[in-house]
Amino acid sequence: MRKLTHAEFLGMRRFDALDGLRAFAAVIVVFFHFAGPRAAFLSGWIGVHVFFVVSGFLITTLMLRERDRTGRISLRDFYLRRIFRIMPLYYVVLAATAVTQYRNGQGWKLLRGHLAHYATFLNEYDLAAGTPFLHSWTIGVEQKFYLVWPLALILAGAVALRLRIPVALLGIAVLLVPFSAAWESLAVHYTVLMTGALLALVLHSRRGFALLAPLTHPAVGAVVGAAFVVLHLSVPRLTEALHGQRHTVVVYGVGVALLLPSLLGPGAGRWLLSRRPLVFVGERSYGLYLVQVLAASAVFGMAPKLHHGSPAAGLAVVVVALLAADVLYHRVEQPMIVLGRKLIKRLDARGAAGGPTPPAPEADPAVEERAPAPAAV
User: Where is the Acyltransferase domain (predicted)?
Assistant: First the structure.
């Protein structure tokens, strides 16, 4: 067996192993919320940063490949894809949460005062403890990233393509500057997102890919995978050694970024995380995360004797949330994604009829990003 070539990477139509990685992250996040101290070794709170790295990598790869195909990055198409991929399911679950909490006096009182922030994706600025839908704050973080990063990437490319990687490095450096406590608490998450974006820029470049290509060799990939497992299990000790979560998150984000190339090559990691059950969960991870609180309410309502904060409770919530997420995947998520693609095609057709500008082709399914499953820390 051999390492992956740059041409093979650019020609990859699917990144199934990344769905399997999402499945792992989604499950440990839910266990963090509902499985109690016996699941603490999973360090589920840090699972969101797996999604951040993967999301930064995928959306940047999507834009770079679009630039190669069409000569430009369409902001209109990018934002429309994000809108139809993220917002419909988000608002459906938010509405369901509001309806169920309306019958719960205290829960509705908590939720009502924060709905304006949730409805406008300012979730990360409203972290009142105990609020239903509190876990959605990371969606607010990602929405800001989706808004700003494509603009920065286009501006850098407009000046010179070779400035893209320096711009990403500069962005990470600025995010790591501790301007204030509030800045530090949010900037660390954007740092992880930018780490994934930087990985995409490096791998898209022929020279950059050559630097990381050894990680795609099966033997090296096995070592990287084992090292990542050790890193993940060492998160509690690392957090203590680094005096807090902020620096741990940065180190962990780099670890995830180094893991991703090993999951692209023909190694054991790619084989394991590409198994259909894991891909199934990963494809539904966004819905699974969004409905976890509703699923927990259903689980504890149907089984009041089930011990809160136990592994059995965590597993039950995962199962119920996955069942609900599968329904939402087929009834809301996928239909709205298709509707968004049809709208883009319709707008392209109108543009072609009204002028000489050729229509931009549909997004490359090789890297069409699925909405991430955020988590709370």
Answer: 16-329
